[in-house]
């Protein structure tokens, strides 16, 4: 009788192990999705706060950035983030009290390989609010809200942490060539 149950017992044990592994994998994927969504939220928050050197901590040291509208490709991550920080500092200095708000919409995150590489894409809408005392000259300069962009991030899980290794932005509206 027991020898007849051995195949059934083997099947039950094997099924339990297989389904258990699937459950573990799904739990890891849920945790990784949450981590990447938090990273995207922090990416947006550091942009709003003008703290791009903090944003750089979300990225690998060799991250590649490709910009829209002829901005090109930058492979020197340190130089790129220093340039961006300098540009943002100039805006915050010239328009004291400006507030930025970013909305990363319609996020799509997919995992590749062994689950340590992910691609995240989303639409990025940014809005600024000028303080009431903004000069007419600065109001003219900032007369138009930024155009929305589509952002694609390639992320790699390194030592248990997700880092952005590649960023690509594309405008969602047609630009006039001037």
Secondary structure: elements and pairs:
Layout: H1 2-49, H2 52-55, E1 59-67, E2 72-74, H3 77-94, E3 99-112, E4 117-129, H4 136-141, E5 149-158, E6 161-171
Parallel strand pairs: 1-6
Antiparallel strand pairs: 1-2, 3-4, 4-5, 5-6
What does this structure look like?
The structure is a single chain. By secondary structure, the chain is α+β, with helices and mostly antiparallel strands. It has a single domain, classed as Nuclear Transport Factor 2, Chain: A (Roll). Helix content is 43%, strand content 34%. It has 4 helices and 6 strands. It has helices at residues 2-49, 52-55, 77-94, 136-141, and strands at 59-67, 72-74, 99-112, 117-129, 149-158, 161-171. A 6-stranded mixed sheet has the order 2-1-6-5-4-3. A hairpin with a 2-residue loop joins strand 5 and strand 6. The longest helix has 48 residues, at 2-49. The protein starts with a helix and ends in a 7-residue tail after the last strand. The model has no long low-confidence stretch (mean pLDDT 87).
- The SSE order reads HHEEHEEHEE
Q: Strands of the biggest beta sheet: in what spatial order? A: 2-1-6-5-4-3
Cα radius of gyration in angstroms: 23 Å
Biggest sheet: strands, sense, closure? Answer: 6 strands, mixed
> Segments where pLDDT lies below 50 for 5+ residues?
none
Instruction: State which percent range the strand residues make up.
Output: 25-35%
- The CATH class is Alpha Beta
- In CATH terms, what is the architecture? Roll
The domain tally reads 1
Cα end-to-end separation: 86 Å
Number of E-type strands: 6
Q: Helix amount, in percent?
A: 40-55%
Number of helices: 4
């Amino acid at each position: 009788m027991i020898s007849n149950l051995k195949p059934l017992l083997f099947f039950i044990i094997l099924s339990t192990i297989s389904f258990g592994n699937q459950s573990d994998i799904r739990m890891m994927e849920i945790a990784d999705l949450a981590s990447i969504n938090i990273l995207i939220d922090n990416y947006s928050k550091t942009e709003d706060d003008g703290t791009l050197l903090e944003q750089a901590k979300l990225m690998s040291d060799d991250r590649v950035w490709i910009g829209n509208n002829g901005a090109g490709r930058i492979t020197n991550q340190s130089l790129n983030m220093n340039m961006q920080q300098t540009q943002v500092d100039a805006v915050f200095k010239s328009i004291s009290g400006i507030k930025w708000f970013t909305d990363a919409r319609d996020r799509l995150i997919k995992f590749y390989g062994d689950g340590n590489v992910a691609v995240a894409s989303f639409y990025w809408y940014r809005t600024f609010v000028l303080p009431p005392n903004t000069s007419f000259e600065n109001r003219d300069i900032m007369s138009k809200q930024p155009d929305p962009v589509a952002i694609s991030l390639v992320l790699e899980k390194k030592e248990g942490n997700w880092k952005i290794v590649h960023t690509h932005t594309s405008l969602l509206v047609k630009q006039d060539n001037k």
